[in-house]
C-alpha cells in the first residue's frame, strides 16, 4: 500500500480498532478527530491556515477527555452541537520528525446542520 502523507508531512500509518477504555495504553495521545455524517454526507471544514480541507479536529485542553475534545472542536470549527459521540478507534500517525502520535476518532450522526459563519483570521504565510 502506498504511503498517505499530507502536505505538511504527517504520514498515516494505520487505524487501530479498540475499546475506548483502552485509550490510555497509547502514548502520546494527541488531539481528537470529529467525524460527523448528515444526509449520507460527511462534514469537513477548510483550514485557512494550512489551506486544505480537513475533518474537525484539535488538541485537548488541560483536564479534557478525548471525547470532550472532539465535541468541543466540532463546535469551534463548524458550530455543530452534539452531546455525545461514539468512539471508533485511533489514528496512528508519524510526524515529520519521525515521532509517532495517536489521535482518537469519534463519530456522530447529525439530524440537521446548523448554520455556520466562519471568522477568518488573516495571517501572512509562516505567521501564527
UniProtKB/TrEMBL annotation:
Residues in Nudix hydrolase domain copies: 47-117
InterPro entries according to UniProt: NUDIX_hydrolase-like_dom_sf, NUDIX_hydrolase_dom
Gene3D superfamilies: Nucleoside Triphosphate Pyrophosphohydrolase (3.90.79.10)
Pfam families: NUDIX
Species this chain originates from: Paenibacillus catalpae
Annotated protein name in UniProt: 8-oxo-dGTP diphosphatase
Amino acid at each position: 500500500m502506498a504511503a498517505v502523507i499530507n502536505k505538511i508531512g504527517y504520514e498515516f500509518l494505520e487505524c487501530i480498532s479498540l475499546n475506548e477504555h483502552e485509550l490510555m495504553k497509547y502514548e502520546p495521545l494527541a488531539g481528537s478527530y470529529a467525524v460527523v455524517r448528515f444526509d449520507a454526507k460527511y462534514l469537513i471544514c477548510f483550514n485557512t491556515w494550512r489551506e486544505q480541507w480537513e475533518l474537525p479536529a484539535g488538541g485537548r485542553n488541560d483536564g479534557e477527555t478525548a471525547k470532550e475534545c472532539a465535541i468541543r472542536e466540532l463546535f469551534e470549527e463548524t458550530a455543530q452541537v452534539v452531546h455525545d459521540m461514539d468512539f471508533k478507534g485511533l489514528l496512528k500517525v508519524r510526524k515529520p520528525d519521525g515521532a509517532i502520535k495517536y489521535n482518537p476518532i469519534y463519530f456522530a450522526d447529525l439530524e440537521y446542520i446548523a448554520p455556520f459563519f466562519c471568522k477568518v483570521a488573516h495571517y501572512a504565510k509562516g505567521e501564527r
